[in-house]
Every structure is written in C-alpha cells, then in structure tokens.
Amino acid sequence: MHADARHDSGRHGVLGRDGIVPVRQRLVWQSLLAVLPSVTGPQGRVRVLDCGGGSGRIAVPLAGVGAIVTVVDTSADALATLRRRAEEAGVAEDVHPVQGDVEGLANLVAPASFDLVLAHGILEAVDGIEPVFAAMAGAVRPGGLLSVLTVNPAATVLSRALAGDLVGALRDARLLVAHAQAPAGDISRLCASAGLRIESQHGVGVFAELVPGAALDAPGAADSLAELEATVAGRAPFADIAGRIHTLARRPD
Questions:
Q1: For residue 139, what is the enclosing H or E element?
Q2: Which H helix or E strand runs over 70?
Q3: Whole-angstrom Cα distance, residue 138 to residue 195?
Q4: Which of 238, 172, 173 shows the shortest CA–CA distance to 204?
Q5: Which end of the chain, C or N, has fewer beta carbons within 10 A?
C-alpha cells in the first residue's frame, strides 16, 4: 500500500521542495521533532519506521535531523523517488527503502526494533485494522513511540455539508452516530490492546480545510494559519472538528 498521497493534499509546504507537510500538518512535524529526544537510543540515533512512507516526504527530513529511517511501501516508483530525494539531501545512507505491504509488516521488520513508528494515513487504507495496528505497535521498542494520524469522521461530515453534499453528510453522520463513540475512541482502544500508553492526542487541520486557497496567498497568511491551528489543536470544540487526529502513544519501559 502506498500512502504518501496523505502529504500531498495541502496547499502550502512548510519545509520547501522536499518539505514534509502542508501548513495544516505543521503541528505533526513539530510534535515529531519535540519527541525525538525522548526516544533517542544509546548511540544518539533515533531509529524510525515509516509505514507507507512512499516517496519520503517525512523520511528525508527526519534523516536530515539525524534519524535512521526505514520506509515500507508497496510502490516501486515511490521508493525510487525516495532514493533520489535521499541522495539529493545527502542522507541516502540513513534512509532504507523496503518494498512491501504493511499488512505483512511482521515479515518485513524485526519486532521491538524501532524507537519511533509512523502510522500516518495508514489505518484508513487497510482491510484489517486490528492486525495491522498490532504489527506496527509490535515494532515499537520498550520506551519507544507510535505516531498515528487518522481522519476525523466528524470533520468529514462537516466538510461534505459545507460543500453542499447534504446526502453524503447525512449518510456519514448516521454512521458516526451509530458508532456511538468519540472519533479518537478506536485509537485509544487499539493502543490499550497493544500495551501502549497515550501521551498526547490533538486535532490537526481545524481550519485549513475551510480556508479558501486565495486567502493563503496574502503575506503572512500561511504563518497565521499555522499559529491559529497550534492555538486550538488541543482545545474543544475546535479539536473535535479537526480534519485529522494525531496520537502519540508510548510503549512502557
């Protein structure tokens, strides 16, 4: 499964041509940078597994700040782009492409061998969420972290309604109500089942999906939007309607 398209949907990048995220996901990058010191191994290097990392929009910048990154993806073309980006950035020795599907992750990487495992935009694209989540969580060493980025179904309902697709909004709202659980509930349950302790959970993209693209062309608008997102990311009711939910969960030592 190739999931790198998860990072290509934004309007404005943060870290330039090979930067990892649009403005609406700047919080994710900042969160990852903030937790790297807490998972740094005894040799001073962080071992990262990027599940479905595709062409390296996260892997290459992480390698650029000193991490050793393994990227698992099914797309040979995406992995070729990953290699090129890593070479151009001078981090080819620290980026390791592995062609394969996350459904077979247990056969591709050793258990408990990574300090940080990224599962961004993966769970929406697999058939069996629980075994895939268990495999990704199993790759996290004691004391390491799992970073999960998932679509918020409540935001999907709001987005459809604002776009005029009321039939679709009603359908999705009924499914959400029938589920009778907070959007982050499934992730909390999966983390508990895998023996992980949630350290933080916040919304990503509260306003970015709603702001007209032309508005972001004004000087300083992108930075203002990023600051606005950071201000409300962890606060209700704003976080409840964010486009995505970012969870960081740690495996106890």
A1: none
A2: strand 68-73
A3: 9
A4: 238
A5: C
